[in-house]
What we know:
Layout: E1 5-9, H1 13-25, E2 36-41, H2 43-52, E3 60-64, H3 80-86, E4 88-92, E5 95-101, E6 106-111, E7 114-119, E8 125-131, E9 134-148, H4 156-159, E10 171-181, E11 188-191, E12 196-200, E13 208-212, E14 215-217, E15 220-227, E16 233-237, H5 243-250
Amino acid sequence: MPLKLALLASRAPDAQSALEILKARHAHVPVEEADIIIALGGDGFMLQTLHATEHLSAPVYGMNRGTVGFLMNAWEPTGLTDRLQAAELAVLNPLRMKATRIDGTVSEALAINEVSLLRQGGQAAKLRLIVDGKQRLDELVADGAMLSTPAGSTAYNYSAHGPILPIGSDVLALTPVAAFRPRRWRGALLTKDSHVRFEVIDPERRPVMADADSTSVRNVIRVDITSARDVAHRLMFDPGHGLEERLIREQFV
């Protein structure tokens, strides 16, 4: 029986062009009926697709019609069925963010890459860091900080000089953004099951926003982050080009 494919694409012209090519070559169904979801675009669109389809069991196979394409496979209009049958599966658990605002309201969101806290105004953020109920930093003065998954460790985390994490490791990277004090603090590696809490010091004068994969919450006073083991994102990659290989290769460029 042929695979039932759902075809999704970003609004970028290259992605829309690729969508029309695949529509002409393959029968397609709505995402709710698909065996595999094909995502055409860049990494941002892949994240959007994973979040939008996290309630479905169908894995997502991406083809790069964007820029970096770290989470995508190479674009090739032919041989798609054979590639899908040979593809390797990677399963990712996102982070769950629970952000409390100054007014007491609470927002929750999932992050496949990272949860970040960033200053909203001209003054540096002041953050208190608590891990598994134990205060680890009394005061971090910085532009912000983030907690990253292995899948997201080559993204914002890496640009902030955080470590690249092996995809199979049960480790999270806690990385400051432009830390002023403590000056020599470069971050920490935490187990996947850690409960991380950021408390904002003086939130009225030094407002802070929290962001989970571009879902932003402004004027937060506290952010709790845990690993969402109850949510599993399933991605497909061409043999020899999976996330593990990409993470290793990224460290030798």
